[in-house]
């Protein structure tokens, strides 16, 4: 799902801000930070991707001080940089982070209970085999063949030694060996402070600004509409969005960047990111009504899709398998229909089907999930249609009705036929075998023979002779 492309009017994956990290080891951390800011501004202005949430993004500065190599000059540079960032961007938008307080000679490693740090190597020998051989002492690196390669090329790394041979040089770089328990606490405090004092307040301010902008623009719009109606009669002002000249795609509508309809969607996406699902639902619902009035069907479909997700995730509604019948599934139906009217094979249509079926399965609405897979699938895309038919069969198998196994078998046969058309013979054989397990022993001789014959034919094509033998025997002796 994360690889599906997003549309220009969707902000759910836009970057909210950027974290700038400068080290006190740099001679001029402030100048370095200004260069990084300029680089980010150029990227935001000149590149389409990555996309940013707005022109005024969140900026957070971390001044990194390496205690293992700290000097009086570096500490002064760090304090000067912190004073500059505090006075320019605010005290909650910067942090002085001190790391590498652990001595390399300490035997107690606080990270042994966690996943080991990754090790980078030069050469083809595994990291576990990189211990200096020939009687060399690993701790001081003075054994036979051990050489000193100078300082490590990573701020969190120490180099234990290298093995020099006539053929190659093997090097071990261990990450995080100087990070102690106190460093972990400092990093945790930095992340907590960034989240609670910087990121969340920034998101709250942005939602409040967007909400005020929406209210003011809608108030002006209503005033203009009422004045126009009084002067010119019932015909209102022109729509804020213009229809495209081609009607083949159901009046594609493009809004201006500052349109109030897009601000509604933007506020909804930001609320959804921070799990404010009830608030996000209100924004999406308002945007959905505006898109419907303007016949902006692509925008309408995306807003309907997010309405369904927000309603499902809302803690207030609390939808579960107990009260699943009250879930507003019509939002997903509207989204899939609007997407499918343009193209059933579009990534947005496939995404909406997957999200709708996952929500239905979570609520134990397996019949509705199977209907989404069957009725809204792209029939001209054999591989995708086969996959959806296979999933519909598994949904039928979860139903309590007595005919559920039979319906499952039929869906497997249909899916296998589509897989064969898409040249995916192994997948076709697999689903045919699943169908045979359900139909075997039910007295449906003709159906069983048809399935076995197809399995044999495709197994022979794939040179899977052992898999075809039992089916040959069943056909010849049955």
Quote the distance from N terminus to C terminus.
46 Å
- Spatial order of strands in the largest sheet: 1-2-3
Instruction: Supply the number of helical segments.
Output: 14
CA radius of gyration: 31 Å
How would you classify the helix and strand content by structural class? Answer: mainly alpha
Task: Find the count of extended strands (DSSP E, 2+ residues).
Answer: 8
Helical content band: 40-55%
Overall 3D geometry?
extended
* Low-confidence runs of at least 5 consecutive residues: 117-159, 223-251
Which sheet architecture does the biggest sheet show? 3 strands, parallel
Order of helices and strands: EHEHEEEEHEEHHHHHHHHHHH
Task: Quote the average pLDDT.
Answer: 80
Summary keywords:
mainly alpha; 9% strand; 3-stranded antiparallel sheet; single chain; 3-stranded parallel sheet; 478 residues; 53% helix
How does this model look, in words?
- With 478 residues, this protein is mainly α.
- The protein has 14 helices and eight strands.
- The strands form three sheets. It has a three-stranded parallel sheet, sandwiched between helices.
- The protein is extended, with a radius of gyration of 31 Å.
- The two termini are 46 Å apart.
- About 15% of the residues have low confidence.
Short description:
By secondary structure, this protein is mainly alpha-helical. The chain contains 14 helices and 8 strands. 32% of the residues are buried.
């Amino acid at each position: 799902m994360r690889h599906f492309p997003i549309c220009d009017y969707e902000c759910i994956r836009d970057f909210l801000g950027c974290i700038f990290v400068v080290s006190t080891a740099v001679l001029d951390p402030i100048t370095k930070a200004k260069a990084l800011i300029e680089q980010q501004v150029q990227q935001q202005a000149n590149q389409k991707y990555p996309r940013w949430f707005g022109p005024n993004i969140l900026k957070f500065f971390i001044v990194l001080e390496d205690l293992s190599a700290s000097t009086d000059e570096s500490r002064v540079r760090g304090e000067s940089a912190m004073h500059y960032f505090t006075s320019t961007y605010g005290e909650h938008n910067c942090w002085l982070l001190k790391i590498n307080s652990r001595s390399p000679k300490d035997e107690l490693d606080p990270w042994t209970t966690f996943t080991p740090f990754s090790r980078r190597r030069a050469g083809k020998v595994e990291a576990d085999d990189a211990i200096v051989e020939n009687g060399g002492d690993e701790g001081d690196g003075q054994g036979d063949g051990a050489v000193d390669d100078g300082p490590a090329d990573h701020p969190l790394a120490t180099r234990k030694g290298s093995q020099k041979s006539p053929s190659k040089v093997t090097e071990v770089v261990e990450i995080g060996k100087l990070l102690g328990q106190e460093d972990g606490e400092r990093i945790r405090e930095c992340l907590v402070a960034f989240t609670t004092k910087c990121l969340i307040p920034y998101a709250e301010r942005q939602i409040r600004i967007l909400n005020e902008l929406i209210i003011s623009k809608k108030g002006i719009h209503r005033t203009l509409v009422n004045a126009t109606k009084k002067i010119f009669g019932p015909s209102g002002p022109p729509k804020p969005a213009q229809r495209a000249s081609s009607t083949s795609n159901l009046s594609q509508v493009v809004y201006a960047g500052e349109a109030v309809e897009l601000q509604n969607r933007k506020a909804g996406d930001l609320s959804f990111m921070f799990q404010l699902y009830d608030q996000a639902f209100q924004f999406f619902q308002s945007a959905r009504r505006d898109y419907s009035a303007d016949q902006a069907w692509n925008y309408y479909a995306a807003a309907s899709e997010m309405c369904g997700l927000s309603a499902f995730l809302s803690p207030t509604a609390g939808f579960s398998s107990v009260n699943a019948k009250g879930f507003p599934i019509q939002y997903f139906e509207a989204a899939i229909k609007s997407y499918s009217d343009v193209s059933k094979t579009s990534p947005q249509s496939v995404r909406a089907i997957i999200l709708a079926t996952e929500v239905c399965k979570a609520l134990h609405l397996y019949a509705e999930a199977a209907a989404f897979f069957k009725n809204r699938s792209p029939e001209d895309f054999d591989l995708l249609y086969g996959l959806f038919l296979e999933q519909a069969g598994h949904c039928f198998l979860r139903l309590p009705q007595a005919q559920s196994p039979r319906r499952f078998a039929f869906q497997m046969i249909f899916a296998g036929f589509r897989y064969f058309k898409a040249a995916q013979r192994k997948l076709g054989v697999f689903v045919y075998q699943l169908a045979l397990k359900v139909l075997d022993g039910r007295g449906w001789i003709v159906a069983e023979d048809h399935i076995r014959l197809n399995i044999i034919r495709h197994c022979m094509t794939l040179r899977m002779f052992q898999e075809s033998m039992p089916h040959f025997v069943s056909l010849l002796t049955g």
